[in-house]
Amino acid sequence: MQKEDEKTVARGSNTYLFTSESVSEGHPDKVCDQISDAVLDAFLTNDVKMGVADDSQANSRVACETLTTTNKIVIAGEVRGSAPLTHRYGAHTVVNREYVAEIARQVVKDIGYDQDGFSWSGADVEVLLHAQSPDIARGVNAKKAKGNVGAQEGAGDQGLMFGFACTETEVYEKNSFMPAPIYFAHRILRDLKDARHKGDLADLLPDAKSQVTVLYENGRPVGCTKVVVSTQHAAETKKGKPYTSAMIKEMIRSYVAKSLPQGWMPKKDADFLVNPTGRFVVGGPDGDCGLTGRKIIVDTYGGYAPHGGGAFSGKDPTKVDRSAAYAARYLAKNVVAAGLAERCKIQVAYAIGVADPMSVYVDTEGTAKVDEAKLQKLLPQIYSLRPTDIRRSLSLNKPIYRRTASYGHFGRQPERDGGFSWERTDLVPELKRAFS
After folding, report:
1. Residue 11 forms beta bridges with which residues?
2. What share of the chain is helix, strand, coil (3-state, %, to 5)?
3. Structure pTM?
4. In the predicted model, is pLDDT for residue 146 greater than 50?
C-alpha cells in the first residue's frame, strides 16, 4: 500500500502531488529556441538602429525556426526587415545568410558547446530564411479602424492563448506569482548553470533536465517528494577517473538543496535521482535532434495551467501566439497581485487578420474575492487585447527575447530595458479602485 505522501490524487483535494520539469539552456530544443530568438532580436535591434519607431508599422516581421543535430544547424522561416539583415535582389528579398549564421554560432558559443559532436566553430550552419508571404502580410498589416482608435493590426494567426498566476511562490520570491513545481524546477537548473559558467562546476556540460514533484497539503506546497536531475558531464575527472552518477550526485547535491526552500529536499536519498541511466556524456544536439518550439510547457506553467499550443520563440510580437500569451499572463498576474483572487486563469482567442479577440474567459478557480462576472467584463475594458495595443503597451518591439528562451518566460522580474514587461504589476492600482 502506498504511503499517504506518495499517493497521486486530484488537485483540489486536501493532499496531492504535482510534478513539473525544466530543461537547461543547453538542451537541444532550447538551443534552437535561443537561436530563433537571437535572430528575432537581431532584426529588432536593426529596427532601433534604423530609427524605426517602436509603434511603427514598418517594424520587422520574423517567424524563425531552428533545427540542430550533430554539428549541423538549420535556420528556416519567413522574415521582413532591412539591411544588413536583408537586401533586395530584383523583386525578391534576400536574407544575409552569413550574418544570420554568425548569430547562431555566437549563441552556441555563449551556451558553452565546443565539443567534437557539436561546436560553435565546427557546426555547419544552413540559413533558409525568406520573405514573409504577402497574403499573411495583408491580413496583419494595420488598417484604420472605425472611431478614434487609430491603426490596428490584425492578429497574425488564429488561435487560443492562456495566462495564469497564483500566490504559491510569493513567500519565496516577491512578484513571481508562479506554481511551485515549475518555479523550483527552473531554479535548480538556473543555479547549476550559473555555477558551471563561473567554473565552480566545470565538469558539468550544458545539457540538463530537472523534474520536481511537490507535495501539497490543504492546497499549499509544503515540500518535494521526488527530485530528478539529469545533467551532462565530462567523461572523467582531471585525474582520469571515470565519472559515475553517484559522483555527479554528490557534486550537485548542495546546489540543488540551496535551490529549494529549507526542508524541501526529499528525506530519502533514493528520492533524489541524478543521472538515473548512469552516464550522460554525449548530450546536446549531438545526442538528440533539437527543434524550436518543443518545450512549450517548460516555457509556461509546467502543466499546472492550460496551454493553447502555440510556441513563442522566433516569433515577432505581431504573432499572438506570443504577444497575447504575454498579455494574458500580465492580466492574470495583476489580478492576483491586486488581491482579487489567489489564482487566475485567462483564455483569449483570435482570428487571423482580425484585431479584436474572438473571446475572453476568466477563471479564478474558486478563489475570487470579488464578483468573477464583473472581473471578466472589466478586464478587457481596462486593458485592450488588440495585438497593436498589446505590442505598444508592453513595448514588445525591442530586442528582449533571447533571454526569455531558457528558464521560463514567466515568473521573472521586469528589467529596466523592457525585458519581461509582461511581469509588471502596474495595473494593480486601477484594479483595486475598480473593486473598492
Report:
1. 13
2. 30, 25, 40
3. 0.93
4. no
Strands 343-350 and 359-363, sheet pairing: antiparallel
Measured in degrees and rounded to the nearest 5, phi and psi for residue 249 equal: -60, -45
Cell 464578483: give the residue: 371
Confidence category of residue 132, pLDDT binned at 50, 70, 90: confident
Could you read off the pLDDT of 49-66 as tens digits, one per residue? 988 877 677 789 999 999
pLDDT in tens, 154-188: 898 899 999 999 999 999 999 999 999 999 999 99
- Supply the DSSP string of 382-418, one letter for each residue: HS--SHHHHHHHTT-SSS--GGGGSS-SSSPPP-TTS
User: What are the Cα distances from residue 322, in Å, to 37, 163, 348?
Assistant: 12, 11, 12
Output the CA angle 86-402-388, nearest 5 degrees.
70
pLDDT of residue 148: 36
* Strand locations in 112-257 (E): 124-131, 143-144, 151-152, 159-166, 204-217, 220-233
- The three-class DSSP label of residue 236 is strand
- Residue 77 pairs in a beta bridge with 64, 129
Contact yes or no for 67/74 (Cβ under 8 A): yes
pLDDT tens digit sequence for 230-260: 999 999 999 999 999 999 999 999 999 999 9
User: How much of the chain, in percent, has pLDDT values that exceed 70?
Assistant: 92
CA distance 186 to 209: 9
Question: How crowded is residue 235: how many other Cβ atoms within 10 Å of its Cβ?
Answer: 12
Cβ contact 165:335 at 8 Å: yes
Do residues 24 and 189 touch, judged by C-beta distance below 8 A?
yes
Show Cβ contacts of residue 157 under 8 Å, excluding neighbours closer than 6 positions. Answer: 310, 319, 320, 321, 350, 352
Strand pairing class (143-144; 290-291): unpaired
Cβ of 194: how many Cβ atoms within 10 Å? 12
Strand pairing category for 290-291 and 124-131: unpaired
Query: And the C-alpha cell for 313?
Result: 520563440
Which residue in 329, 295, 300, 293 sits closest to 314, CA to CA? 293
DSSP state of 132: P
311-323: average pLDDT:
97
